[in-house]
Design a protein that fits this description.
Subcellular location: Carboxysome; Cytoplasm
Keywords: Bacterial microcompartment, Carbon dioxide fixation, Carboxysome, Chaperone, Cytoplasm, Photosynthesis
Number of helices: 5
Largest sheet: none
Helix content: over 70%
Distance between the termini: 63 Å
Structural class: mainly alpha
Family: Belongs to the RbcX family.
Protein name: RuBisCO chaperone RbcX
GO cellular component, one term: carboxysome
């Protein structure tokens, strides 16, 4: 396993997710302050996937530089705000989720065992 590549891929996904969050926030703000521009941005987002945040921003820079800079500024702010506590949240979230998955799996196994054992004939005790 190439941990550097895993970290690089994770960073790219997180960056794209923060781009998506910035887009949602800006669209909500624009819907209140500038509905026509919000509509335009919504249409742009429907034509360009934000799944690759960098490609999305590059395309937006070609059409509406001011909106692209607004998204980049907000994305940077979001990254700065969550960067400090994100690693611990990820670790503890994964640990908790793994324990839940394991617990549910063990419960199913135990329930199957109880169901399976009830189909066997019961031994009669000799007196």
């Amino acid at each position: 396993m190439d941990l550097k590549q895993v970290a690089k891929d994770t960073s790219k996904v997180l960056s794209s997710y923060l781009t998506y969050q910035a887009l949602k926030t800006v669209m909500a703000q624009l819907s209140e302050t500038n509905p026509p521009q919000a509509l335009w941005l919504s249409g742009f987002a429907s034509r360009h996937s934000v799944q690759d945040g960098e490609a999305f921003l590059q395309a937006l820079l070609q059409e509406k530089q001011d909106l692209a800079f607004r998204l980049m500024t907000l994305r940077k702010h979001l990254a700065e705000e969550v960067a400090d506590y994100l690693p611990e949240m990820v670790r503890s979230g994964i640990e908790q989720a793994n324990m839940e998955h394991q617990r549910h799996h063990l419960e199913r196994l135990v329930q199957q065992g109880v169901t399976d054992s009830s189909t066997y004939p019961k031994e009669e005790k000799e007196s």
